[in-house]
Amino acid sequence: MKIPSKIDFINTVARVSPHVHQTPILTSRLLNEISGAQLYFKCENFQKMGAFKMRGAINAMLKLSEAQKRAGVVTHSSGNFAQAVSLAAKNLNIPAYIVMPSNAPQVKVKAVKGYGGQITTSNPTIQSREEEALKIEKETGATFLHPSNNIDVILGQGTAAFELLEKHTDLDIIATPVGGGGLLAGTAVAAHYFGNTCTVIAGEPFEADDAFQSLQAGSIQYNDTVNTVADGLRTHLGNHNFPIIQELVSQIIRVDEEEIITAMRLIWERLKIIIEPSSAVPVAAILREKHQFKGKKIGVIISGGNVDLSNLPF
């Protein structure tokens, strides 16, 4: 698996930019003091449909042939990618078939319906999600879009980091959460080509630390349990993103549930923005390992803000 080329990435930026928001970058003097670093928050919670996943979904769909667009797309997702595919498909006038597990947050199910996605409910296992998606693929001829293990999706997700590096060319580090690995891999490609000496790290919950385990083992590992508040990270790496992460990501820092909730609350209180638990994970990682980030300029990708307000962890 070779890393996508710089030209591929530049073409992706040109393709995606007209269809997404150039999201704001926020800073906080107090959060700089608490962390001992200079933090630049790339706020993808202000992206269309409320998360970075719009970028990858629109990129993958714009690359489909006319025949593929007519047949539609199918994906499985517990929430954010489901919303991204539904909205991107609506904007491009493409049918969207969405498999969602029975335990998906209701706020995300409602949003998918609002964007016109046709929902099929599966059991809450990856296997069940994949089986349902395959069935739809066979019945409709729709193109399957993997939420994180698809090169066009990965490159699309990397455009958030590209925008961050355009504004702040001297970042030492970019930090993201890691679940399926699409955002992390895309960010790593962006930093590789446009980041000068910028390294990429990720935060991951101890309760779903398959990416950390995968880097240790040198092969893709799977979670036994996914008992984490960060519902967007309850998934595993894939064969397209893992080699990129292996080669280009310098570190994955694991955090516990209390650290995630504390970081989430801190961002709500200090930046006055709504973020989902997954977005707080890299912030928790920076706060956990403050000693190694002292004085560094760190870009943090705030991955999304789709929260069930009736079910907050604090």
TrEMBL record:
It holds the Pfam family PALP. It comes from the Bacteria. InterPro entries: TrpB-like_PALP (IPR001926), TrpB-like_PALP_sf (IPR036052). Residues 16-304 form the Tryptophan synthase beta chain-like PALP domain. Its cofactor is pyridoxal 5'-phosphate. Signal peptide: none annotated. GO terms for molecular function: ATP binding; L-serine ammonia-lyase activity; magnesium ion binding; pyridoxal phosphate binding; serine racemase activity; threonine racemase activity. This is Serine/threonine dehydratase. It comes from Patiriisocius marinistellae. The lineage of its organism: Bacteria, Pseudomonadati, Bacteroidota, Flavobacteriia, Flavobacteriales.
